[in-house]
Amino acid sequence: MVELSTIPQEVLDIAEGIRSMRIRGAGKIARSAAEALRIAAEKYQGEREPSVFRRYMAKVADTLIETRPTAVSLPNAVMYVMQAVFQQTSDFDELKKGVIDAANRFIEDSLNAVKRIAEFGSKRIRENSVILTHCHSTAAVSVITEAYRQGRVVKVYSTETRPFYQGRITTRQLLENGVPVVQIPDSAVRYIMHEVDQVVIGADTITSNGAVVNKIGTSQVALAAHEARVRVFVAAETYKFSPMTVIGELVPIEFRDPTEVVPQEWLEKHKNVRVLNPSFDVTPPEYVDAIITEVGVIPPQAAIMILTERLGWAIDKIKQAGLTKLRFEDLVED
To answer: What is the CATH number of domain 116-303?
Structure first.
């Protein structure tokens, strides 16, 4: 059994950064996890025996995943790199190099993903469009900005996205890129939808059936758009597709502190009132017209194809092991 103390301190520092949310944002979390696995492989000082190296890397992988179990980009990055760990070879040097190369490849692909999403997505925006967006998504902002540069966007409505007002970040970034923006409260979405040509939003997680888990309020935006026959595009990197949903695992919805919604003084004054503060909601695939990824634009129903192509090996191993929770140490054969 590999002890935690054998893991390099640099790797543990990255793990703690993810756990404490010093490292945040889906892309940064994913790239940091890949970097940690690369460092772990480079600094490995144990036996030059593939089976021992695999157990060591499995322990590192599980340590990383346990830091933020609900952040789907984290296990996806780990699974992508760990595919190299499970390659059939008895050559230690080949195995180690494969892990390092896979980590470098993931980091490079991740950095280029948003640019490719912007290129694909901007082509889907019609001329002279009014766009509505919700919350903050780097991918969605990139699509809208690129479409504006091409002369396709005339105005953007950006929700405030309470209670943390991430929509104000979106508004600021669009303004910095010269895009005309109107800030609106979340409750104004249905009122304003008759002016909107297309909705462009991001995603926190995409399930195997194409459902989109995103910031609370997203499903209401999609419902209002569906009612008004306005197309909804989701811009998201493929590392946000959740492979564990293939085997039936549900995406957990985080409930945060009520004081993010109302002041502590108000709660103390109204002790019999319960305040719910869900962070995310689920938009069904039938309310999504297309998902814009770095590998192309797909219908929601094709999410399972992306998962199978990119992470099918992991899904198969998890099924074979009869696991309901991802643990790489349980996948390593003695």
So the answer is: 3.40.50.10470
Domain boundaries, the chain: 4-114+311-330, 116-303
Q: How would you write the chain as a 3-class SS string? A: CCCHHHCCHHHHHHHHHHHCCCCCCHHHHHHHHHHHHHHHHHCCCCCCCHHHHHHHHHHHHHHHHCCCCCCCHHHHHHHHHHCCCCCCCCCHHHHHHHHHHHHHHHHHHHHHHHHHHHHHHHCCCCCCEEEEECCCCHHHHHHHHHHHHCCCEEEEEEECCCCCCCHHHHHHHHHHCCCCEEEECHHHHHHHHHHCCEEEECCCEECCCCCEEEECCHHHHHHHHHHCCCEEEEECCHHHECHHHHHCCCCCCCECCHHHCCCHHHHHHCCCCCCCCECEEEECHHHCCEEEECCEEECHHHHHHHHHHHHHHHHHHHHHHCCCCCCHHHCCCC
19 is in an annotated binding site: no
Is 68 assigned to a binding site? yes
pLDDT tens for 82-92 read 999 988 888 99
- Is 240 labelled as part of a ligand binding site? yes
Catalytic annotation present for 204: yes
Local confidence band at 246 (pLDDT 50, 70, 90 cut-offs): confident
Please tell me whether the overall predicted TM-score, pTM, comes out greater than 0.90 for this model: no
Whether residue 104 is annotated as binding a ligand: the answer is: no
* Catalytic residue selected from 109, 197, 204, 289: 204
**Catalytic choice (109, 135, 197, 289):** 135
pLDDT in tens, 199-243: 999 999 999 999 999 999 999 999 999 999 999 999 999 999 988
Question: Which one is the CATH code of 4-114+311-330: 3.40.50.2300, 2.40.70.10, 1.20.120.420, 1.10.287.3610?
Answer: 1.20.120.420
